[in-house]
Amino acid sequence: METITDFINAFVLLLNFILVPGLAYGSQIALGALGITMVYGILRFANFAHGDTMAFGTMVTILVTWWLQSQGISFGLLPTALLALPAGIVATVMILLITDKLVYQHYRRVKTPAVTLLIVSMGVMFMMNGIVRFIIGPNDQRFLDGEKFIIHARNFKAMTGLNEGLSIKVSQGLTVFIAILLVGALFWFLQKTRTGKAMRAFSDNEDLALLSGVNPDRVVLITWIIVAILATVAGTLYGLDKSFKPFTYLQLLLPMFAAAILGGVGNPIGAILGGFVIAFSELIVTYAYKKVFVYLLPVSLEPSNLMQLLSTDYKFAVSFFILVLVLLIKPTGILKGNVI
């Protein structure tokens, strides 16, 4: 009986520190990678400003959340940020459309190479990063009501009698639920609506789509709106789950690009798959397994060290390693790229 209990305790540890966080973090990375994939698949350039677009949308959501909280407005058990999210999306749509009008539109018209647009997007990245830091500051910011629990470790221990407690935050459950809804809505839009089919045709063959009567300006407009929604939702869910710091969103570019390239750049399904592979790889490699093995092994074989392959300080190195490996072995990714 002790062996079964020890096994369950070890399993709860893995649930608590790998499976549950991996599902939430993977959903956040997948939504971010989807935004990168949409820009690459339709507008045909690697958008290095996507991380700071997430930061901008999240910043607006935080500011509106704080204002709602100061007015005594809440959303019950759910985070107030969900009420503020539409304002963040609208602000992000506006800044992306303004940026496209003032910056990207010119380069599209002169048919500039994709590498030039990539460099231009880096300039936009620094501009957005500066705006966010100027408005909200460079330090950690919190939503204040985003740290509620669906299951609390203390209650789980009392209920089960186990040594290890399982905790699931509201933000983690919301992340997975909203990600499923958003991805489902996006695929329905791309597959079933006339505009979605026009976007897919534009992605597949721009010249043929134009000859068929597809309005390129409308395709660009809808693309940026979708990207704004994905970026703001992904950034807000990440901020609720962890905390908001502008520089963190810049760092998230690496795992998001790694996810998009791993799945196949331009392939939405690949971006989702890549997001979860990257997330779980980071967590599996950086988790300290000592306590798990203490439960599973006899006392004489218990490990003396942390049983950790890499420190959490190097978690982004995992994304970089996977990215390099994919580019060397299969540059097209797991699934065929450039298929919206």
What does this structure look like?
- This protein is an all-alpha fold.
- Helix content is 73%, strand content 1%.
- The chain has a domain at 2-133 and 149-162 and 170-254.
- It has helices at residues 2-43, 50-70, 81-109, 114-136, 153-160, 170-192, 194-204, 206-211, 216-241, 246-251, 253-263, 268-286, 290-296, 315-329; strands at 149-151, 168-169.
- It has a two-stranded antiparallel ribbon.
- The longest helix is centred in the first third of the chain and has 42 residues, at 2-43.
- The radius of gyration is 22 Å and the shape is globular.
How many helical elements? Answer: 14
Low-confidence stretches: none
Mean pLDDT: 90
- The span between the termini is 53 Å
| Helicity range | over 70%
Strand proportion, as a percent range, falls in under 5%
Main sheet, how many strands, which sense, barrel? 2 strands, antiparallel
- List SSEs in N-to-C order: HHHHEHEHHHHHHHHH
Number of extended strands: 2
**Structural class designation:** mainly alpha
Principal-axis shape: globular
**Adjacency order of strands in the biggest sheet:** 1-2
Based on CA atoms alone, the radius of gyration comes out at 22 Å
Give a summary of the structure in a few sentences:
The chain is mostly helical and 340 residues long.
What is the secondary structure topology, with strand pairs?
Layout: H1 2-43, H2 50-70, H3 81-109, H4 114-136, E1 149-151, H5 153-160, E2 168-169, H6 170-192, H7 194-204, H8 206-211, H9 216-241, H10 246-251, H11 253-263, H12 268-286, H13 290-296, H14 315-329
Antiparallel strand pairs: 1-2
Helix pairs in contact: 1-6, 1-9, 1-11, 1-12, 1-13, 2-3, 2-4, 2-9, 3-4, 3-9, 6-7, 6-9, 7-9, 11-12, 11-14, 12-14
